[in-house]
Amino acid sequence: MNPERLRILDLLATGKITAEEADRLLDALKPRPGAPNPDENPSQTAPTGLPKFMYVKVISVAGDNVNVKIPLSLVRAGLKLTSLIPPQAMDQINKSMSEHGMSIDLSNLKGEDVEDLITALREMEINVDAKNGDNIRVYCA
Amino acid sequence: MKVPPYALSLRVADAGRTKVRLWLPMFIVWPLLLALGLLAVIAALLVDLVFLVTARRPRYTAFVVGCLGLAGEARGTEVFVNKESQTVVLTIR
Fold this sequence. Notes:
- The complex is a heterodimer of chains A (141) and B (93).
- Chain A folds into 2 domains: 1-30; 36-140, no CATH class.
- Chain A has 5 helices and 4 strands.
- Chain A has helices at 3-13, 19-29, 72-82, 87-99, 111-122, and strands spanning 53-59, 65-71, 125-129, 135-140.
- Chain A has a 4-stranded antiparallel sheet with strand order 2-1-4-3.
- Chain B has a 4-stranded antiparallel sheet, with no helix packed on it.
- Chain B has helices spanning 30-53, 60-73, and strands at residues 7-14, 17-25, 78-83, 86-92.
- Classes of the chains: A alpha+beta (141), B alpha+beta (93).
- The interface between A and B is medium-sized, with 22 and 22 residues.
């Protein structure tokens, strides 16, 4: 049995999650339409069955398309690197980011948070349908 | 740490016809990058040593090693941009 499925059932058995929550989590494990089928190309998915890549797809009605495939290990390494940035440089980065409208204090990002963030990213799916017909999709597979 | 990217390919096409196709063998510059990486690690170690003496938290070595690791994780990145009839595809292998 899939280890994720087993873990969800274990959480349900121990009463840590409700049957509804378990149902939702099990649904999230099902392959998404349009996502690459791991059976077709096993090298695209990690041996544990976890997603290996983050996809960003932009399809505009004007015919402009952007398709970006980023290894999740790169995202993880990048996030972990932020927790290693020397404090002297961190102040400048935070200041520059806030000037550009991103008020995020990167010094608050700890190593253990990165793992949680990556786990959450694996289950994330963003679908934006703009009024003008443009479509943006961000997901992991 | 993973093996750094060994090739970078870039393809620019216009109306379905390939105009530019570049395959950059990154493994040729590996020895140079290794030397630069080692120099950076040595410099970071020296800075951290000074930081230890001045009772500040040493972080530069970990940061430099993290940067080198980041380069290794970039393998598999693909960027595809299509605007009107022009297409640009960048792949890091």
